[in-house]
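Dear Dr. K.,

Following up on our conversation at the group meeting, I've run the structure prediction for Ribonuclease P protein component from Bifidobacterium tsurumiense. I'm pasting the input sequence below exactly as I used it, so you can double-check it against your construct before we proceed with anything downstream. Let me know if the numbering doesn't match what you have in your notebook.
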Amino acid sequence: MERLKSHRDFVAVLKRRRRVSDRDIVVHFVVHDNPQADTRMRGAQRRIGLAVSKAVGNAVVRNTVKRRFRVLAREYEDALPRYCDVVMRAKPSAASADFQALDHQVESLFSKISAKQQFQAVNSSHVNENSAAHVVDNSGNFAEKPTAIVSNDIRNEMFNERVAQRSDASSELVSDSESYSAGNEIHAEYDASKDLIS
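The predicted structure tokens came back this morning:
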């Protein structure tokens, strides 16, 4: 696993505002969709940067935390998506955390990053597969216009995936009634747009 070396690379990861966190660690990440176009990747698949501030402790403590992070990142790097940049940021509590606790947290956080990326890929592919509605163009012929309409089966599948992810993170779950009403709103908007077209 290569290191993020330039300040610009660090900022690029942090600007995306995609992160997962645990008790002692926050992991910021970005997954590159087209790594060949990004000259900064230079053939590297996964790159890591470490952010350990003075709030964590003195130089000796900070270096200890960095060494632990490097060892753990190397151990669990295969859990990350390919062509991924991560910045591991230590919370002040990381100084007093034992190695086993950090080990468990890094394994869990890297797995969450992979799960988020897979969910995003599935979500976008479902929308693309079901995103064509017939409309009448200027010449009076039928044409296909991309929309964001998603079928009930796919919406329910996506909802179940979100519930599973949120229960892992001990977040509040979205109720079935909210999902049902959101689905009704989407279909109502779709019916209204059909009336406007015809």
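Two things stood out to me. The first strand starts at residue 2 and ends at 3. The two ends are 57 Å apart (CA to CA).

Best regards,
J.T.
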